[in-house]
Design goal:
2 copies of one chain form a homodimer. In chain A, helix 8 links the parallel strand 7 and strand 8. In chain A, the strands form 3 sheets. Chain A has an 8-stranded parallel beta sheet, covered by helices on one side. Chain A has 2 domains: about 70 residues, Carboxypeptidase-like, regulatory domain (Immunoglobulin-like, Sandwich), CATH 2.60.40.1120; about 325 residues, Glycosidases (TIM Barrel). In chain A, helix 6 packs across helix 7 and helix 10 runs parallel beside helix 11. Chain A is built from 11 helices and 15 strands. The radius of gyration of chain A is 23 Å and the shape is globular. The first copy, chain A, is an alpha/beta fold. At the A-B interface, helix 7 and helix 8 of A face helix 7 and helix 8 of B.
C-alpha cells in the first residue's frame, strides 16, 4: 500500500475532560466520515430534484439515484453554462441553482461551478454586442455568480478550453470574438481577476480537454504573466477508449511540473460501443441509441478502477469528477453509473470498493493511554471519535496532534 | 499588381549641384540594386569556399554555384550549430565563420546566424555539466558569438524549436535538460537577454517547425512575459509535399495577430519523390539516393512560385530563406536549385523571373523638372541614380523625399 502513503495521515489525539484532565484508559471508537480527496460527479438532474420539479416515478428514480450518488461521492459539479443559466439577459437562474447547491451542501458535498467563461453554450445575446460590451458582460457575470454563491460554491472552473477558444470556428460566438481580439492570456487574466475579487477564498481552475503541450505552454505563459491558478483542470472524456495507464502517467508527469494541484474534472468511460476514432469533436457524434452492454459494463468498471488507482496514486491529483452519474446525459452516452432502466452498473460497485473500501479507514477501537493519548492513522479526511457516550468530529491531516475536549 | 502594392514605394528625388542649385531638365537613369525584402538561402558550402578549402573541380563548381546564388539572393543563413561550431570546448570556429560572413557581406548579402540555442546538434560536452553550468555556458556562448560577429551578422535565430525542446526525448542533451528544468519562457527570456545585450542593434528571432497553436501560445506567453521578439521564424520544410496556398494563408493569418514581422526561415520543396507521410521527424528518413526527376523539377518550380507569391503578397512577411541551394544537403534531399551534376533546375529560373523580373524595378530613364525633381516608383530597396556622368546610391522607402547631391 506504499502507493497511497501520501493520502494518509497520522495524528496523536489527546482526550481531555472539560477541566483539562486526561481521559485515561478509556475505549474510543474512530470512524472516517469523509475523504479529503474529492471524489466527484457531475449530475445536473440535481437541479430539478432540489427544486421539487420532478414528479411521480421520475422523482422517485432521481431521488433513489442521488442516494447512491451521495453514498459514493463527496464532491459535485453544478452547471453554470451561461446560455442556459441566463437565457434571457438579466434573468439568471440564480435561485434554482442556489437550491441545488444548498441541497448538495446539506448532504456533505463540496461544490464546484462550471464554467464561468466558455465559447460553447455561451449566451447567444452576446452576439449583438461590441467586443468591449461582451467583455464587460462576461466580467460582470463572473462577479455576480461568484459573489452570489460564495460560501455555497467556493470552487470554480473559471475558464474552459482556452487552447481552442480564439481559433474555434464551428460557429460565431461572443467569447471566441473577445478571446481572438484580446489574446488568451489577457482574457484569462481578466476572468481570474474578476473571480478572485468576488471571492478571495475560492479555488479557481483553468480547464481543458486539450492535454497537449499547447495547454502546458499556455499554463506556463499564464503563470509567467502572474495569473494565479489554484488548480489545473484536465478533462478525460474517453468515449473513444480508455487512455491507458501509460498515457495517463505521461499526462500527469507533464502537468506536474508546475507544482500545482491537478483536478481530473471531466472523466468519462462508456459502457457501450466506443465512439469511432475518426470523430474529432465528440459533439459531432449523434446517435439515437447508445446501449449499455454487459461486456461494455465490465470494461467500463475495470478501466475506471485502473484510472482511479493511477490518479489516486499520483500525489498532486486532488480531485476526480465523473461525467455523468446517469446514462443518457451528454451525447446520449452510456457513460453513467446507472443505466436508463435504473440498474446500478458494475463501475459503481467497483469504485465503491475503492473509495469506501480499500481507501477508507475502517472503524478503529482503541484505548487511550495514561495521558489520554491515542494514535490514529488513516486516509486523510474528516473523522469522528466516540468516547464515553460522546462523539466529537476531527480532521486528520498529514500529521500533528489534536486535542479532543469532551463536554 | 495590387497584390504587391505594400512592397512598393514612391519618392520624390531632388537633384542638386554642390552649391545647392537644382539640376533642372537633365536625363537621369535609375536602377534598382537590391531588394529590401530578404530573399535568402542557406548554403553552408560557402564556409570552405570562403576559407579557400576547396580545390580543383569542386572549387570551380562551388564558385560557379555561388555566382548563381549571389545573382538571385541578397540574404544568407550561416551555420552556428554549437556541436559543429565548437566541437572541442574552448575552440570555436570563429575565424572560418568570420571569413565566410565577410565573403558574403562583401558580395551584398545580409546575414543571419542560425541557431544560438537548440537541443539538436548542440555541444555534446554539455552532458558532463550541471544544469547551472550548462545555462552559463549557453549564455556565454551567445554573448561570444553575437559580440564577435556584430557588424557582420546582425540577425540571429536565437533559439530554435522551443515547442518540442523540453519534451524532446530522442536522446539526452544539455539544452533539453535546462529547458525542462527552467521552463520554456525563462530559457527564452535568458537567451534573448544575452543576445540583446551583446548586440543591441541585432534582429532577434525565435524559430520553429511547429506551426500549431502551441507555437502561437508560446509566442503570446513570451510577449506577455516581456520578451522582445523582433521577428517570428516559421519553418516550412515541405519534403512531404507543398502546403498549398490555403494552409499557407491560414498560418500567415494565425501568426500575424502579434503584429510582428514574419520570416520564412527554412523553406524546402524537393524535386524528387515526396517523403512518405508517415515519417514524423524528417530526420528519420534516410535514403542512399534521392534523385531529382524531370516531373519533380517541374513540380518544385511551380510550387515554389506559388509559395513565394503567397508570401510576398502578405505584408508582414519580410524574408524567405530556401534550404539549401545545392542538392544533397540536409537529408540528402533534391531540395536545391542546382542538381548534384551541376545543372540549374527550373526553380532557379522561375524564381529569378519573379525576384529579378516581375518584382524588380526595371531601369527607368526620366528627366528632372525645373526644380530638379524627379519621381521614382518601384519595389522597396536600394537604388542608384546616374546623371551627368555621376552615379549616386539611394534607398527607396515607402514614401518620402530624398535629396541627391552631385559632386
Amino acid at each position: 500500500m506504499n502507493t497511497y502513503e501520501h493520502r494518509k495521515g497520522k495524528a496523536v489525539l489527546k482526550l481531555v475532560r472539560p477541566d483539562g484532565t486526561p481521559v485515561s484508559m478509556k475505549e474510543v471508537v474512530i470512524r472516517q466520515t469523509r475523504h479529503k480527496f474529492l471524489f466527484g460527479c457531475a449530475e445536473f438532474a440535481v437541479v430539478p430534484l432540489a427544486n421539487d420539479k420532478l414528479q411521480g416515478e421520475q422523482k422517485e428514480r432521481i431521488s433513489w439515484a442521488f442516494e447512491k450518488f451521495l453514498d459514493l461521492f463527496n464532491f459535485a459539479t453544478l452547471p453554470f453554462y451561461w446560455g442556459r443559466f441566463e437565457p434571457v439577459k438579466g434573468q439568471p437562474q440564480t435561485d434554482s441553482l442556489k437550491k441545488a447547491a444548498q441541497w448538495l451542501k446539506d448532504r456533505g458535498c463540496v461544490l464546484k461551478g462550471h464554467p464561468l467563461c466558455w465559447h460553447t453554450l455561451t449566451a447567444p445575446w452576446l452576439l449583438e454586442m461590441t467586443n468591449a460590451e461582451i467583455l464587460d458582460a462576461q466580467l460582470a457575470r463572473i462577479r455576480r455568480e461568484v459573489s452570489d454563491f460564495a460560501g455555497l460554491i467556493d470552487m470554480w472552473d473559471v475558464i474552459n478550453e482556452v487552447v481552442i477558444m480564439p481559433v474555434f470556428d464551428k460557429y460565431d460566438n461572443g467569447i471566441t470574438r473577445i478571446c481572438k481580439e484580446m489574446g488568451r492570456i489577457p482574457l484569462v487574466r481578466e476572468v481570474f481577476k474578476a473571480a478572485r475579487e468576488a471571492n478571495p477564498r475560492a479555488i479557481l481552475l483553468i480547464n481543458d480537454f486539450n492535454i497537449s503541450e499547447a495547454y502546458a505552454i499556455l499554463i506556463e505563459g499564464l503563470l509567467e504573466a502572474g495569473v494565479t491558478i489554484d488548480a489545473i483542470g484536465i478533462q478525460s472524456h474517453m468515449h473513444q477508449g480508455y487512455w491507458g495507464v501509460e498515457k495517463t502517467l505521461e499526462v500527469l508527469e507533464r502537468f506536474s511540473r508546475f507544482n500545482l494541484p491537478i483536478h481530473f474534472t471531466e472523466t468519462t468511460l462508456v459502457s457501450g460501443h466506443l465512439m469511432p476514432p475518426h470523430i474529432e469533436d465528440l459533439n459531432d457524434y449523434k446517435v439515437e441509441e447508445w446501449p449499455s452492454t454487459p461486456e461494455g459494463e465490465e470494461r467500463q468498471a475495470q478501466e475506471a478502477v485502473l484510472h482511479y488507482k493511477t490518479l489516486f496514486a499520483w500525489p498532486n491529483v486532488e480531485a476526480i469528477t465523473w461525467w455523468n452519474f446517469l446514462d443518457g446525459g451528454w451525447l446520449n452516452a452510456p457513460a453513467g453509473f446507472i443505466t436508463k432502466d435504473g440498474r446500478v452498473k458494475p463501475i459503481y460497485h467497483e469504485l465503491y470498493k475503492l473509495i469506501k473500501g480499500e481507501w477508507w479507514t475502517g472503524e478503529q477501537r482503541l484505548v487511550t493511554d495514561d495521558d489520554g493519548l491515542v494514535t490514529v492513522e488513516g486516509y486523510l479526511g474528516d473523522y469522528e471519535i466516540s468516547c464515553m457516550g460522546q462523539t466529537v468530529p476531527f480532521t486528520l491531516h498529514k500529521d500533528g496532534s489534536i486535542e479532543i475536549r469532551l463536554a
